[in-house]
Design brief:
binds heme C, two-stranded antiparallel ribbon, Cytochrome Bc1 Complex, Chain D, domain 2, 43% helix, 2 strands, mainly alpha
Amino acid sequence: MIRFTTLGLAAALALGHFATGASAAEEGGGHGAAPTRQSWSFAGPFGKFDQAQLQRGFQVFREVCSNCHSARNLTFRNLAEEGGPRFSEAQVKTLAAEYKIQDGPDDQGKMFERAGRPADRFPWNYPNAEAAKATLGALPPDLSVMAKARSYSRGFPMFLLDAVIQYQEHGVDYIYALLNGYSNPKDVNHNDYFPGGKIGMAKPLSDGQVEYTDGTPKTVPQYARDVASFLMWMAEPKLEERKQTGFKVMVFLIIFAGLLYFTKKKVWADAH
Ligand code: HEC
């Protein structure tokens, strides 16, 4: 009996492990329209990022979003890491060198600028939050963990069901919906999905704005999809690893349960 209780507990823990991403679902709330659930390559227990999509998403982030938003947790070399966009080391080096990074103080006590290196953090266009706010009218939030920080409530009983069906993409679905949610061409600040319907970010994307070189359609929905995936990777760069571990744990538990069953049979075989 004890053995089976232990097994049950272990199984519950493993399920919890899969479901951790879903806990964000209960936060947030807000009263924008409910985003539609999208299908993503990284969803489900075998989910994986689409490398080409992450590369395009980075391009959109870099050329559009990073004009206003920071991504404090991102260092250039992350872009070459496994499970991410996997740019080559050489590409990352070239990319980093295109940015000016403030460094110092030097031996005269002065700050100075130098070309970026792969170990540097992705720099923000603004020296501080006040400067960004003064220029843009509202503070653009840091995008490092945005895909996990934002969510929306699906209410009872959906949030319980989400844990079971392993729906963990509320944040990305919200970002995708938000970027596509500028439904009033006369009002660039109207957004169907932003709580209150008015957002301080004017419609940031338009068709043809980012030059894709791989033949992918240059449309707002496509840009939104790609950049949302990229934000998901930034928020959880170890997503693939987590899912693989979860799967191994489940396989282990199944084998372990089988072994316990046969052990029990053998141990009790002679007891009459
Ligand atoms: C011109 C500047 C600018 C650009 C470009 C821009 N944003 Fe924003 N963004 C803002 C500002 C300002 C806010 C804060 C709006 C507010 O609080 O009303 C914001 C808010 C957001 C939010 C948070 C919404 C929420 O629920 O609070 C997300 C997500 C977001 N931006 C994503 C993006 C993405 C992705 C891109 C690139 C495709 C992008 N932004 C491009 C200025 C910008």
